[in-house]
Amino acid sequence: VGALTPLTSSLAGDQFPTSTRSIGFAIWAVLAGVGTLVGQIMAGLVGPVYGWRVPFVLAALPALGSAFLVMQTLEPERGSKEEALQAVYQSSLESGDPYVYKQTMTWTKVRQVFSIP
Question: Where is the Major facilitator superfamily (MFS) profile domain (predicted)?
Fold first, then answer.
């Protein structure tokens, strides 16, 4: 689940405008905590009675439901919610030539970020 953090952060960044992005991240963080709490309580109650395998099966059910919902989610345009790119997107819509955000992370950019005091 922790391996999905970069993916969900990127998706939330493309789904929410900057003005409400913190709310989206907060909801995600709260639900992750609630899921952990419910999973541990469920494993503590169900595991001793039905064996250690059953809690894993029960925990997989909401995960499968979430996976189905994620597959139904439309892929957002990369960077379309960034305020700094709104003028570029607007002009591309008016010209009929769609703007495609193609920025990628490179090691040079990583070094630049870590060099900031």
Answer: 1-117
**Separation of alpha carbons 87 and 47, rounded Å:** 55
Angle of helix 53-72 versus helix 21-50 axis, rounded to 10:
150
Residue type, 38: V
pLDDT, mean over the chain: 84
Domain residues of the chain, as ranges?
Answer: 1-76, 78-117
What's this model's pTM, rounded to 2 decimal places? Answer: 0.59
If you ran DSSP here, which 8-state letter would residue 83 be given?
A: G
Q: How far is CA 102 from the centre of its chain?
A: 19
Give the N- to C-terminal CA distance of the chain in Å, as an integer: 32
Contact residues for 80 (Cβ-Cβ < 8 A; gap 6+): 14, 89, 101
72: left (phi over 0), alpha (psi -120 to 50) or beta: alpha
